[in-house]
Specification:
The protein is of the alpha+beta class. The protein contains three helices and six strands; from the N terminus they run ααβββαβββ. The longest helix is centred in the N-terminal third of the chain and has 27 residues.
Length: about 180
């Protein structure tokens, strides 16, 4: 659930005021042949502006930060456990925070696996028993780590996901989005 802040209500009031004023001007214009189609177009335009402004306001008012993030590989069930804390550093309540975790093969610095040179053979991977898709496929998963996070609140989180065993040099990337 996303919460409207005072800024969201302010933007909604301004856009509604503009819609009312423009609608009155269109209706008063005697030379307008089809005022209702013009009003519908203006209404759709104002709705688009409001939706874009909601996303823009959420980007700057719903701000959270990850702290003390650590990851451990659990060998018993081949999983990755990512844990840490999330803090609301913005001035408003946050509805949901999603954490996207991606595990991929870090190929930087490997000889022969750069974008400039990839060795090929007429036999393909017949003699090496290597599956190219299995080795390079990243694993990505999205978790909801916080809901209804109040201003200044700090919460612990812990998520677990499958760990790809085929990756030679795994790297972990995580990204936090809140709204």
């Amino acid at each position: 659930m996303t919460y409207f802040t005072i800024l969201h209500w302010f933007v909604l009031a301004i856009i509604s005021l503009f819609f009312i004023l423009i609608t009155l001007l269109v209706m008063r214009n005697q030379q307008e042949k089809s005022p209702f189609s013009t009003v519908i177009v203006i209404f759709l335009l104002m709705v688009m502006i409001f939706v874009i402004s909601i996303f823009g306001l959420d980007e700057y008012t719903k701000v959270a930060r990850l702290e003390d993030v650590s990851h451990q590989k659990v060998l018993m069930n081949e999983s990755l456990v990512l844990s840490g804390r999330i803090r609301n550093v913005g001035g408003f309540t946050i509805g949901k925070c999603k954490l996207e975790v991606e595990i991929f093969s870090d190929r930087v610095g490997e000889a022969g696996n750069t974008a400039l040179f990839t060795p090929k053979s007429i036999f393909g991977d017949f003699f090496t028993n290597k599956k190219a898709d299995e080795e390079s496929a990243p694993v990505s998963k999205t978790f909801i780590i916080a809901e209804n996070l109040q201003k200044g609140e700090l919460r612990n989180f812990s998520v677990s996901m499958r760990y790809p065993t085929a990756l030679k040099k795994p790297s972990i990337r995580h990204e936090l989005t809140c709204h």
